[in-house]
Amino acid sequence: MSLFNKALASIGIGSAQVDTKLEKDKVTPGGEIRGVVHIKGGNTEQKVDEIYLGLNTTYLKESNDRKINVPVVIDRFRLNEPFTIGPGETKEIPFSFVLPLDVPISIGRTKIWVSTALDIKNAVDPSDKDYLHVIPNRLMDAVLNGVEDLGFRLREADCEQAPYRLRKRLPFIQEFEFVPVMGSFRGRLDELELVFFQVSENETEIYMQVDRRARGLGGFLSEALEMDESNIRFTVTSSDIPGLRQKLETIINKYS
Questions:
Q1: pTM (2 decimals)?
Q2: Burial 33-60 (b: 16+ CB within 10 A, else e)
Q3: Got the DSSP string for the chain?
Q4: Which architecture characterizes domain 2-134 according to CATH?
Q5: Nearest-CA neighbor of 36 among 96, 86, 80, 76?
Q6: What is the pLDDT of residues 44-76, one digit of tens each?
Q7: How far is 72 from 159, CA to CA, in rounded Å?
Q8: Could you report the per-residue pLDDT of 110-132, keeping only the tens digit for each?
């Protein structure tokens, strides 16, 4: 019977089960995630080589003139040394880890989740999947609100393959695309794109692309040659928050 149970466990029937419980699913970049991994033994004794948590998302990548969704592991955390779990035995393994600053926020089609996997030799590895709701931190939220206060509306936010000049640790960037719907920039700009590169919780570098609206023949020629776009890099800190709207307006005005 034991050999039969082992054979079933090797194809995932009657093997150990894993269930991860998070203390909370709402967190900001740089925030701490806490939880417990619950493991229940199957019908036979099994050796678990390791338990690891993966922080995951997907991003859009161009391939053969079309965009495809590509899964990516943002970070990975090993929780334990090898152990053996007996039939029907239960174990609880608490954990905590800090969310990296470059994790994207949960907006639009962007989903972030924690995957839990048990590494068991000669068997189908049990796994679990728990979604996170990653929200902007105080500084990032102030920038996004400041842009909206200037009359822009967020049209789209996606994780896309990073061009070489913007590539850092991860192969993608999260791009926020705004359009002017009111205020002084309506009629002057086509769109405004932002990318955040978090330096710390209190400092972020921003890559901004200002896309000016074509005006007359010269404007249309500039647009055709992609000369109607300006790319700007600047840094904001928490101390900028009280005057952030004015700082953003000054920068956008300079290139619009």
A1: 0.83
A2: bebebbbebbbbbbebeebbbbbbbbbb
A3: -HHHHHHHHHTTSS--EEEEEES-SEE-TT-EEEEEEEEE--SS-EEE-EEEEEEEEEEEEEETTEEEEEEEEEEEEE----EEE-TT-EEEEEEEEEPPTTPPP--TT--EEEEEEEE-TTSPPPEEEEEEEE---HHHHHHHHHHHHTTEEEEEEEEEEPPGGG--SSSEEEEEEEEE-SSTTBTTEEEEEEEEEEEETTEEEEEEEEEEPP-HHHHHHHHHTT-SEEEEEEEEEGGGGGGHHHHHHHHHHHH-
A4: Sandwich (2.60)
A5: 96
A6: 777 888 888 999 999 999 878 788 999 999 999
A7: 11
A8: 999 999 888 766 444 567 889 99
| Domains in the chain: boundaries | 2-134, 138-255
Give which of 114, 145, 110 is closest to 128, Cα–Cα: 114
